[in-house]
Amino acid sequence: MCSPAHFAVEYAINPWMDPATPVDPELAVKQWDGLRETLIGLGHEVHLLDPEPGLPDMVFAANGAVTVDGTAYGARFRHEQRSAEAAAHRSWYEARGWRFVAPVRTNEGEGDFAYLPEAHGGLLLAGYGFRTELPAHAEAQEALGRPVVSLHLVDPRFYHLDVALAALDDANVVYFPGAFSVASQRVLAQLFPDAVLAADEDALAFGLNLVSDGRHVVLASEATRLAGTLRAAGYQPVPVELAELRKGGGSVKCCVAELRP
Q: Which domains are delineated in the chain?
């Protein structure tokens, strides 16, 4: 995770960002601290990436890489405003002994990649259409040695995979069908017949931008209907308030890069 010490909405690179809407920096830090403390309280270890001035979106740490078995496939950001973040993530991983694969193709890390180690022998779901380019999926497959399933995102409000789909455990997912092309919806239905489906109201509340450890599902507090659906499916929802960071187009998952050493 990376503190939102420099968080601001100074430009608009997704439909949720509005530079004219005021941001409360102190509240953003308080809400982020609440998320970090929630994860620690659930028994998870949280490592920190130092925020850098001039990079207001660094708080969205998930976008810096995707990791599998000690290898980090790094990010190459679509927009110039975020491009310098990639070097900070690379330095963090290399300083800690990870094998780091620098990308050639544009991709935004776990923003557009979800790893399920027990689904069909282990696979990566990968989004494209707005940020990550399709050739990056092949590059990730070579870097990480896992089959990659490409999913076409068609609604600009769901510009990253991680606002439209999330891994609930090692083999199953929750997603909002309307974020995907008809063909990609068919693929998801074939791969995950028991998937949890989210309603549009919860998807638009960033309810799918969640983190799950297979039992506890940490998600935006506004996604109340989805919390009930997850509870009925046997998971334990853990709501958190991140409304201030949502002004930047992200929520729980965007703030958390999952480490798989």
A: 25-254 (3.75.10.10)
What CA–CA distance (Å, rounded) separates 94 from 53?
21
Instruction: Give the amino acid at 114.
Output: A
Nearest to 113 by CA among 100, 101, 127: 127
Q: Which two tokens stand for residue 199?
A: 């309603």
Catalytic residue among 89, 137, 216, 254: 254
DSSP 178-241: GGB-HHHHHHHHHH-TT-EE--HHHHHTTTTS-EE-SSEEEEETT-HHHHHHHHHTT-EEEEE-
| List of residues 6+ apart from 88 with CB closer than 8 A | 49, 50, 52, 55, 58, 64
What is the block-wise mean pLDDT of the chain (261 residues), using blocks of 10 residues? Answer: 98 98 96 98 98 98 98 98 98 98 98 98 97 98 98 98 98 98 98 98 98 98 98 98 98 98 95
Q: How far apart are the first and last CA of the chain?
A: 16
Q: What are phi and psi of 164, to 5 degrees?
A: -120, -20
Assessment of whether the complete model's pTM goes beyond 0.90: yes
Task: Record the tokens describing residue 237, joined without a space.
Answer: 């929802």
List the catalytic residue out of 2, 89, 137, 160: 160
Residues 6 or more apart whose Cβ sits within 8 Å of residue 235: 168, 212, 215, 216, 217
> Among residues 214, 256, 253, 71, which one has the least CA distance to residue 146?
71
255 is catalytic: no
